[in-house]
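agent: user wants the full assembly modeled, not chains individually. Plan: 1) parse entity lines 2) check alphabet per entity 3) run joint structure prediction 4) return tokens. Steps 1-2 passed, two entities, 548 residues total. Proceeding.
--- entities ---
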Amino acid sequence: MNSAFRIPHSAFEARPWLGMIVILETFFCISCWLTVVPISGRDSYASLDRLLSRDEEARVGKYGSVASALLGESRLALSGHFYEMADMYFHKGVEHVHTRAFESGIFQKLLKDISPERHVHLGGQEVKEIMPWLWLAIHTDPHNIDIYLVAAFWLARECGRPDLAIEVLREAQCNNPFNYQIQLDKGCIYLKEKKLEEARQAFDAALAFWSHNENPHSRDAQEGKATILLYRALLHEANREKEQAIKRLSEILEMFPGRTHLKQRIEMLEREINLLYWHLSIWMLL
Amino acid sequence: MTRIRTVAFIIWIEMIRKKDVYVLLILLGTLLVALVSLNIFGLGGVVGYVKDVGLLMAWIFGWILAVNVSSRELPQEETRGTIFPLLAKPVTRFELIAGKWVGSWSIVAFATLVFYLLIMGIVLARGGAFSPVTLVQGYILHCAALGVISAIGIAFSTRMNHDAAASISYVLTGTAFLVIPRIPEFMARETGFGAGALMFLYNLIPHFEVFDMRKRIVHDYGTAGWGTFFLVLAYGILLISLFILVAWLAYRKKRFSRGDLG
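--- prediction returned ---
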């Protein structure tokens, strides 16, 4: 019987298929690499307005690379998949649990022993096992800030590599200029490392970029600004800059009047009580 | 037993001459080398993803090899006309089928062993490690799954040509890998006839997910319980026996005519 499609009998006959697989793989690798290469160089970033209004367009590749133009939304789906893989690795290979009609079948009991489904997290140096998937997610969608922030968080905390976390945030900054969250995270890492001057610069940059935020009245944006102002106030206190610290705290109170503990702190600053200890206690929480 | 071994040995000789295993080995090696060459944020000693992708590829390549090798043996004998001198010898149809299965399964198991050794070598070179006992458990269950796939290929090839047998084997085993484990989730949203049909499929089609110990190996969960291990192995042996029996029943009365072959 002749059939339109024959399974090749050997590698010799399979050469066209193998060749096609190799070509597709090569194409995909080149596309992923090109993802971080802009189509046109500096001209794409000539206008600040274009930059700041282009977040969504950049994510789907209008100002992006050849790979963005070719792969489009598929690139975002792939990046999402890699991020899910990182999450799965964080949970030691256990995926999100879906509702099942039954759980007590013999095959499911066997499977529970062969492939455990315990709810556990990676800790300490083990967390670096999630990094390859975050790396792939970042390089597939370099405009997704959250992935950069997650990678930097775990590198700085559990992996004990704040230097690498700063490198990741620098890369995020290159791909996503004028994003305040990146500067905020940088400032926090520098603060924890007691690099106060670098932290000050990062928080000042975060404040400057925040004003160009697309949606400044959203809850997340307001919380973000309050966090930046709080850390900046801490640094003012550490430098004995009482007036600037009070100004920052007052700005937070204007946005969130319910934070009465800040009112108390302002009073203490004005009366110069316990100047040394409050900011240090907040610092220790970082 | 000697006749079964002889039939199996012929398959080995043939596979050494063919390039299937070498091509897959080169592909696996290339992929693993590409993976370890990635600079993951400047971190060193990260090997989980290499193990995961490597073992996944070992499963995929083993699956492809098992279906291809097992589903072509009998049709090839018939197409070439060598089935006549073979059956003219004192080789029973059962010995022929068993020999074909032993040959195709053993060569696929050996190729899989080479894949595992390659993955192990690259992971060790990268500074990682495997739990030896868990890896051996995983390999044995993997071989059991490959045995079932080979038996399925042989069974279909008794009554179909190579292309059709391979296609149906791919569909059946692919469904068993990807769809069957998720039927309990699908059934949570189905009622009536749909739920009944899903339950029928769930109980009819082999469950390959119970042979897959990759999660244990990659994420360092340690060895599986020995009771579970032997139970799964027994399930694999049962499936192999069942499909070999089906193959023998389909083949024992099959008539060959020189004019119909080729």
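agent: reporting back. Residues 15-34 of chain A form the longest helix (20 residues). Residues 178-286 of chain A form a domain with the Serine Threonine Protein Phosphatase 5, Tetratricopeptide repeat fold (CATH 1.25.40.10).
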